[in-house]
Design brief:
CATH class of the largest domain in chain B: Mainly Beta
Distance between the termini of chain B: 92 Å
Number of helices of chain A: 5
Largest sheet of chain B: 8 strands, mixed
Order of helices and strands of chain A: HEEEEEEHEEEEEEEEEEHEEHEEHEE
Helix content of chain B: 10-25%
Oligomer: heterodimer
Structural class of chain A: alpha+beta
CATH architecture of the largest domain in chain B: Beta Barrel
Structural class of chain B: alpha+beta
Number of strands of chain A: 22
Radius of gyration of chain B: 30 Å
CATH class of the largest domain in chain A: Mainly Beta
CATH topology of the largest domain in chain A: Thrombin, subunit H
Radius of gyration of chain A: 25 Å
Low-confidence stretches of chain A: 1-21
Strand order of the largest sheet of chain A: 1-2-3-6-5-4
Helix content of chain A: 10-25%
Largest sheet of chain A: 6 strands, antiparallel, barrel
CATH architecture of the largest domain in chain A: Beta Barrel
CATH topology of the largest domain in chain B: Thrombin, subunit H
Shape of chain A: elongated
Number of domains of chain A: 2
Largest interface: A-B, 62 and 64 residues
Shape of chain B: globular
Mean pLDDT of chain B: 86
Mean pLDDT of chain A: 82
Strand content of chain B: 25-35%
Strand order of the largest sheet of chain B: 27-28-30-29-31-32-33-34
Low-confidence stretches of chain B: 1-13, 54-69
Chain lengths: ~350, ~700
């Protein structure tokens, strides 16, 4: 009799336990969505381009109404309309931009106080998310919400944290570096600048633009992590800036934008001539190695097939040349190549191009 | 007593769990499950990279893929001794170099060789030199159920093998998809994880991800559904079953019976055989048109879909049993070995050009081709076909609800070369009617061994009766005449016109020569400009080359504008929209709508032709190779004009393309241009293209 009761009891406990947990799980996501929504704004541009949405999403990063968003086309015209979570409307203007981080800071034109916001330093101090982490992607995609209507919430996982350059040409991506790839179709019109958060509401990243993977002609869904950094060039010098620095200095109106053409051909000389580019995608087979060049010194020979540059896969001549542009004279560059059936590794020390132009 | 105990327990539980729950609620558990599953199988999920291979220039949902080959892809270990299975999609371009990276393996990537491809399930087996790969656990098919977790893993996004694969979480959406071959999942499936596994919550492999579509057979069919929530995977159990055969190094072909059903309706009519392919297993077994299949492999079948469900997963050489009904008899075949050859459909050729835009009953012959069946049968220019059929006593008359030319072509589309037909002709000379017997031959250009020629000179005399908009002459009082536009149609705009697709998103240009006459049905050439050559000047310059012929042969030019770096299959939608819009506004002969381009543009032209057959009747491509060649369809004729320059390194592939198209029995022509690379056509070749275009309505 006692045993039987005991059995019933434990069944009862199990049942209650499970329902309690399920209820709780739901609640935690709801809370997160509600809290995060308060820290987000809907952006509306004035005018805009044909075929491009003139609306977007932003994240509040100060109580006075500083907004972090993507540095995209809706910011081109001055005067941006901001709707905060409770329906208040303000005019805002851009006070800082950094194309290399694909980010911009807006400031609300009026005196406002005590807006719910993210403390950006605190968010960036956390470890980065990993593959398989549950996420919520929140944005005003498709301009579904106006005034006090909330952001659209989507659930998914981090598909991978990996280099965006792996999917786009190096010179092609607005921001070059590690991003979170998402398994949810989050990068829709107007979503850029939206928030990628974990279930606790911690800010993981800024939702990216509508971007296509040029290698396979498919849309990418990604977010730029809050810990992102980029190289910018200021008066000829290369400096590293983090998104956190940008936000901090941007709010203080002290941020100095990098030179426009950051990702220029840095022109390191390697001395490799590749096979004639007869068709658009020949693999980078070495045709000739210039005598005395870095490639010659490193022992590269005609017919070697270059596979990786600094770990980057270079399946075509175009991608090889593209990747090499990132390295200037004096850089050390690791190449992996195939000779016959063997894979070899070599380090090139790039130099200045020779004074006399090469025959090709 | 019981109630109170329970209440107490709940209370204590609440206290006990509240602290635990704070950190680890159900979502946490689920998240952990996903990651654990991924981590567990990670050593078996490898990254595959390829180099080189045939240079295929256009990517395509159903056409070929080029750019996909540039990225790394995914594979799954199926043998500790180095065997790895992956999606055949990743080996489309037959790359000579294959490299594999495995978690935990030090140093350089492993070199792999291709062992064999399963062409039924679109999988490829490769092998690396290794003795210590990790074979993952798998889920038997009987344990896979709808609604179970399905976690899709891939290695395409990240080169860092020490990390877990990329992950997308979904469920099993359905079993036995793609005619019994595949599992369906709502995890996000795309080139990012093709070749990778879907695994259950314990990290056991359920299947291997492939692009697939129930509507297409080629390796890339289904790509258009990437990330849509509809994805497919081949069950691991089926793969393991066929592995020993693949290891022998011979490609596995789909097993075919070699029949085509009488009706294209797969669901609501009995599976009655329409045609039996020569040398097929059906022919060997004595099956004949008119036989109705009633049982296959012991399962009753009442429609074609059920037949496909049973036969869909079979390989060449597999043996099946079947029962069929012939008249009142039921016949049983105990064991029938399936063949693996493609069923090739060929279209027949009578050898005439019909008079166009003719509302009168019948088909007037305006040209008879040399040495054609029509010539042999004594059909002359000016004769009018009034009745047609296979059985002389039972000839069909023209009804008048469709132009005679169209009705006649529809009927020919149901026949095959070699068929003897009877035609009742109203002779031009003497006004008498007689009936001739003709044995149809193959369309010129549709035989692989025989090089095809385009006629040197177009027939003189009017090609058109110039009454395209006049009401059709009715024969059958029961047939309602189609609606006819007003006798004096509004004259649409002519000249070089800048237009937008109806959604306003995409620009296209039209060249309509000023003397345009809406009573004549025009040819429409849709030009896929070379990458970047999209300015008004570029397009006007190209149209200039054609202008003389536009006026002489009533051709309208449509020039959609592509603004980025080259045509991609995703652009097909707006090209189609522009084409449809043009057909709506101008009088266009539906038999003479073609896509045209060079290099990438030519690939795009062929892609459009294969995938929008209701609209395009041909493609003219210069310096482009054909790929993603689809099967010929009886009543949807498609013709090809290919040209290459002997200086173009790709030229031999262009020439080969003609053969490959002809093997599928498409009428295809190849012109080698001397001392030319991949430049645009010279005038003499434009003239040839025009002659090709002008004979597209041959019958």
């Amino acid at each position: 009799m006692i045993r039987k009761n005991f059995f019933r009891l434990s069944a009862c406990v199990l049942l209650v336990g499970l329902t309690a947990m399920a209820g709780r799980a739901q609640e935690s996501m709801t809370k997160t969505a509600v809290n995060v929504n308060k820290k987000m704004v809907k952006l509306f541009g004035i005018g805009g381009f044909k075929g491009l949405p003139s609306y977007g999403t932003g994240i509040l990063v100060s109580e006075k109404g500083h907004i972090l968003t993507v540095n995209n086309h809706i910011l081109i015209n001055p005067g941006i309309l901001v709707h905060v979570y409770d329906g208040r409307r303000y005019q805002a203007r851009v006070i800082a931009r950094e194309p290399a981080l694909d980010a911009a800071i807006l400031e609300i034109d009026e005196e406002v106080v005590a807006l719910p916001h993210y403390d950006f330093d605190q968010e960036t101090a956390r470890p980065t998310a990993e593959n398989g982490d549950w996420i919520l992607a929140m944005s005003n995609q498709f301009k579904i919400g106006v005034g006090d209507e909330p952001m659209s919430v989507q659930r998914g996982v981090i598909a991978a944290a990996a280099d965006l350059r792996g999917r786009r040409g190096v010179f092609d991506a607005p921001y070059a570096g590690d991003v979170y790839f998402l398994d949810v179709i989050a990068c829709n019109p107007g979503a850029a600048g939206g928030a990628l958060v974990n279930r606790k509401g911690h800010l993981l990243g800024l939702l990216g633009r509508e971007l296509k993977d040029t290698r396979i002609d498919t849309w990418i869904n990604y977010a730029v992590p809050v810990q992102a950094t980029a190289e910018v060039s200021r008066e000829g010098k290369i400096e590293k800036v983090s998104l956190a620095d940008f936000v901090k200095l941007g709010i203080q109106k002290k941020y100095k934008e990098g030179d426009k053409a950051i990702r220029v051909d840095k022109g390191g000389f390697h001395g490799i001539t590749l096979v004639v580019k007869a068709v658009s995608s020949v693999p980078p087979y070495v045709e000739e190695v210039m005598l005395g060049s870095p490639a010659d010194k490193a022992g590269l020979r005609p017919d070697d097939l270059i596979l990786y540059v600094e770990g980057f896969s270079v399946p075509t001549i175009t991608s090889f040349l593209d990747v090499m542009k990132q390295y200037g004279p004096g850089s050390d560059v690791d190449l992996q190549y195939q000779r016959g059936n063997k894979l070899e590794k070599v380090r090139l020390k790039l130099t200045d191009p020779p004074k006399v132009p090469a025959a090709n | 007593m019981w109630r109170r105990n329970c209440f107490l327990a709940v209370l204590s539980l609440a206290v006990l769990t509240s602290s635990i729950r704070a950190q680890e609620d159900l979502n946490d558990l689920h998240e952990k499950m996903t990651k654990d599953a991924s981590r567990k199988v990670a050593p078996s999920v490898v990254q595959i990279e390829t180099r080189g291979g045939a240079d295929m220039v256009v990517a395509g949902p159903k056409g070929q893929i080029f750019r996909k080959a540039l990225g790394p892809t995914t594979g799954v270990v199926v043998g500790a001794d180095g065997y790895i299975i992956t999606s055949a999609f990743n080996f489309l371009n037959n790359p000579p170099q294959i490299f594999v990276r495995v978690q935990g393996q030090q140093g350089d990537p492993l070199v792999a060789t291709r062992v064999a491809t399963d062409k039924s399930r679109m999988l490829t087996l490769i092998k690396v030199e290794s003795k210590s790969l990790t074979v993952p656990a798998f889920v038997p098919k009987k344990d896979i159920k709808e609604g179970q977790w399905a976690i899709a893993l891939g290695r395409a996004l990240d080169a860092k093998m020490e990390k877990t694969p990329s992950v997308s979480v979904g469920v099993i959406s359905a079993l036995n998809r793609i005619w019994g071959k595949a599992l369906q999942t709502d995890a996000k499936i795309s080139p990012v994880n093709y070749g990778g596994p879907i695994v259950d919550s314990a990290g056991r492999v359920q299947g291997i991800i492939i692009p697939a579509s129930p509507n297409g057979e080629d390796v890339t069919a289904g790509l258009e559904w990437y990330d849509s929530g509809i994805g497919f995977a081949i069950p691991m159990e089926d793969i393991l079953a066929v592995l020993p055969r693949l290891k022998q190094g011979k490609d596995l072909q789909k097993g075919l019976l070699g029949i085509a059903m009488k009706s294209p309706d797969k669901f609501s009519v009995l599976p009655e055989i329409g045609t039996v392919q020569k040398a097929s297993s059906a022919e060997k077994a004595g099956l004949k048109p008119g036989d109705v299949l009633i049982e296959i492999e012991g399962k009753a079948v009442v429609n074609m879909a059920q037949v496909q469900h049973i036969l869909g997963g079979k390989y060449e050489g597999d043996k099946i049993s079947l029962k069929y009904q012939r008249g009142k008899d039921t016949v049983e075949i105990k064991s029938l070995e399936l063949t693996g050859k493609d069923v090739v459909i060929a279209q027949p050729f009578l050898g005439i050009l019909p008079l166009r835009d003719d509302p009168r009953l019948g088909v007037e012959v305006r040209h008879v081709f040399d040495k054609s069946p029509a010539e042999t049968a004594g059909i002359k220019i000016g004769d009018r076909i009034m009745k047609f059929g296979v059985d002389e006593k039972n000839l069909t008359e023209f009804t008048g609800d469709k132009a005679g030319r169209g009705q006649f072509l529809d009927w020919l589309g149901t026949l095959t070369p070699g068929t003897a037909i009877k035609l009742a002709l109203k002779r031009k000379a003497g006004d008498k009617t007689d009936t001739v017997s003709v044995t149809l031959s193959d369309l010129p250009g549709s035989l692989p061994g025989i090089p095809a020629k385009i006629i040197d000179k177009l027939p003189e005399g009017d090609a058109s009766f110039k009454k395209a908009l006049a009401p059709l002459e009715l024969n059958n009082p029961n047939v309602k005449a189609p609606k006819v536009v007003a006798a004096e149609p509004p004259m649409p705009e002519t000249g070089l016109l800048e237009l937008n697709t109806p959604d306003g998103e995409h620009k296209y240009w039209l060249w309509v020569y000023p003397q345009y006459d809406p009573n004549i049905a025009h040819s429409l050439v849709v030009w896929m400009h070379p990458p970047g050559k999209n300015s008004k000047e570029d397009l006007d310059g190209w149209a200039d080359l054609w202008d003389e012929y536009c006026r002489k042969h009533q051709i309208i030019l449509c020039m959609p504008v592509e603004k980025q770096d080259g045509w991609l299959p995703t652009h097909a939608d707006f090209v189609v929209a522009a084409t449809r819009e043009t057909i709506k506004t101008y009088t266009i002969d539906k038999q003479r709508v073609v896509a045209h381009g060079m290099a990438v543009g030519g690939q795009m032209a062929m892609h459009l032709a294969f995938n929008h057959r209701d609209l395009f009747k041909g493609a003219a491509a210069i310096g482009s190779t054909a790929s993603g060649i689809k099967d010929n369809i009886g009543n949807q004729r498609l013709s090809f004009y290919l040209a290459g320059g002997d200086l173009d390194p790709l030229n031999k592939y262009v020439a080969e393309s003609r053969t490959r198209l002809a093997e599928k029995r498409y009428p295809a022509f190849y012109r080698e241009r001397e001392k030319r690379g991949r430049e645009y056509a010279q005038d003499v070749h434009i003239q040839e293209m025009v002659r090709w275009l002008e004979t597209l309505d041959q019958q």
